Amino acid sequence: MAKKSAADVKKHRNNQVVATNRKARHNYSILETFEAGVALMGTEVKSLREGQASLADSFATVDDGEVWLRNLHIPEYHHGSWTNHAPRRNRKLLMHRTQIDNLIGKIKDGNLSLVPLSLYFTEGKVKVELALARGKQAHDKRQDLAKRDADREVIRELGRRSKGMS
């Protein structure tokens, strides 16, 4: 059986994205992205299937050769009992040893962070898209906003010209 490429996996997501970190691309410049599995308890998966999670203040760290996702908020499962999980507990990320060693080297070399971009289901398994990112300064954010506005204006003008309005 042929091995699936990353593009194939992303195509077959079937819009099962649970949560996205919308501010991540605004506050950080993304250098590289990784996909990692998440070690979860049963009630966490059930809560995620209901579409409840928040990546707002979450980040990832590498401790003792393991990658941990911190501050991910998965609310308690409302049909759960005393076996419910803690909403903001640290969750272990599942990655290959070579990927973890690669991340450790890159984080120690530069002023880089591991930021989760999205949380989604792939073939019944919960995955997180991690980004190796560098924080943006305020002037970088302003430049990005100005560039986006200029691009939007160019597209509007091209649309007007193609319709013969200008």
Distance between the termini: 56 Å
Fraction in helix: 25-40%
Radius of gyration: 19 Å
Q: Structural class of the secondary structure composition?
A: alpha+beta
Tell me the name of the CATH homologous superfamily of the largest domain: Small protein B
CATH topology of the largest domain: Small Protein B, Chain: A
Defining traits:
Small Protein B, Chain: A, alpha+beta, 30% strand, 166 residues, globular, seven-stranded antiparallel beta sheet, SmpB, RNA-binding, disordered N terminus, SsrA-bd_prot_CS
Describe this structure in words.
This protein has 166 residues and is α+β, with helices and mostly antiparallel strands. The protein folds into two domains: 127 residues, Small protein B (Small Protein B, Chain: A), CATH 2.40.280.10; 30 residues. 34% of the residues lie in helices and 30% in strands. The chain contains five helices and seven strands; from the N terminus they run αβαβαβββαββα. It has a seven-stranded antiparallel sheet with strand order 1-6-7-2-5-4-3. The protein is globular.
